[in-house]
């Protein structure tokens, strides 16, 4: 399918942020960025906003440029003027955010799923707490591999084909996957490779488990 004929999905969620957005270690900068962003979203000028919350224009300018620390009463007035909870002004400063780096070929090997029939599963990292629900795995099938029993599990799984070719089954349907192809499926439906067409086969399998999932 040519790029011009591809379906277009409109993403209305705010994902991109300015390059100078603070990482959360500088509280004044966090408040400055949030106040400025919320003020602009409300369509208010610095003068209008200052008058609305009862502070000077110079003080609001200092707050938005992280040149002063806000008192609790000033934060409360800013939040009221912006019609948001006070906690919105601290967004991004509440906690440290984890990240896991896994060097190529060094991921933990998962034993048990399909290892008895020559399948290799490499875990590409796992976060703690609520983010542990996401499980990225690199699956490798070689000449020693066989088609294995079907899988079934809670949650949603994304398969992204990296190398080789296979026919993958999900429920009553089959999908021929080649490099660059992807398959998003409901994990409750029986699924797994039905035919290994061209070896070696490598694909990324990312499973998102529901909130109440337990290992």
- Helices, by number, come to 4
Q: From the helix content, strand content and strand pairing, which structural class follows? A: alpha+beta
SSE order, one letter for each helix or strand: HHHHEEEEEEE
The parts where pLDDT drops under 50 for at least 5 residues are none
Shape: elongated
Mean pLDDT: 82
Reported for the largest beta sheet, the result is:
7 strands, antiparallel
Oligomer: single chain
Number of strand segments = 7
Distance between the termini: 40 Å
Helix content: 10-25%
> What is the beta-strand fraction?
25-35%
- Please state the CA-atom Rg, rounded to the nearest Å: 25 Å
Task: Note down, in words, how this protein is organized.
There is one protein chain. By secondary structure, this protein is of the alpha+beta class. The chain is built from 4 helices and 7 strands, in the order H-H-H-H-E-E-E-E-E-E-E. Helix 2 packs across helix 3. The two termini are 40 Å apart.
